[in-house]
């Protein structure tokens, strides 16, 4: 069956080969497109290493922030690519309406999600373009800083990096800027829309859960005992079907979300330390806003999935199941016990995607701030 959901998101991801263009499509294209970003990551790491080796005045903390952010984005994409086939199965299952019918509010939710996706993509790329344009706007302050501190950092580039040529010379400077802009658009743009695709699957799973809750009324109100038992058996199959999709999500997203949670905690630690030290920059604040917004939206999505899955038991209990025969009541009691288990999307081996994860990340960041403060004294 063809994919009938997430068309806008998957259309973009197919351009960068994160979503396969055909059933036999490999992931090689995605890695080729991302390869300049891996070289950019290496050049960012070498900036501080070479600078300290040559006893130059370099802002190591700024380089570590940039390196951590780039590494987190690339690792997130890599782990998504490692489980790409499972993600394809998830989207295919969510597009299958032959067994249990199409949820009545699916079209309305799809239109709403498509509008949000378009808005998100516009905001994402406006933010990326602003990030690219800022070094050109603030080039004068960069020149003044070089004069004040006796540095020779190339001005007008997105990030400081080490390259085996003079980045202040024409055309190397212009070529470096184009390279950095390409890496920024491809890596941050692809990671942002990939994360959006994961959240969209959760939203479509929420639609299925809401559909499941409405069907329990039809089951309970069926006057014929035999038909009622058949409807209940099909309802249970639907419930199992939804949980199977959720389990696939948990397996598929586990490592990518773990990487996300790990790197965002480390990055917030460095950003918090620079804020306390009064050395934060516009680049620092842009990284914080982007990563925190991503963390907040992802955790809200995971929490909504937990709450909605637990509401299935409440919907069953609130129905008039007690007015039916004893056999039916016994079956309902077993189903009630099973429905009290929430749907959890793992974000690593020790936590899951929920609002509690935000607190965990902030606690991790606070630990790194204390560590950096202790080592700097």
Q: Can you tell me about this structure?
A:
The longest helix has 53 residues, at 225-277. Helices cover 76% and strands 0% of the residues. It is elongated and about 85 Å long. It has helices at 7-15, 28-53, 60-82, 84-94, 106-137, 139-149, 172-220, 225-277, 282-318, 326-339, 355-376. The chain is an all-alpha fold.
Structure, briefly:
The chain is mainly alpha-helical.
Layout of SSEs?
Blueprint: H1 7-15, H2 28-53, H3 60-82, H4 84-94, H5 106-137, H6 139-149, H7 172-220, H8 225-277, H9 282-318, H10 326-339, H11 355-376
Helix pairs in contact: 1-7, 2-3, 2-7, 3-7, 3-8, 4-8, 5-7, 7-8, 7-9, 8-9, 8-11, 9-10, 9-11
What distinguishing features does this structure have?
76% helix, mainly alpha, 0% strand, 377 residues
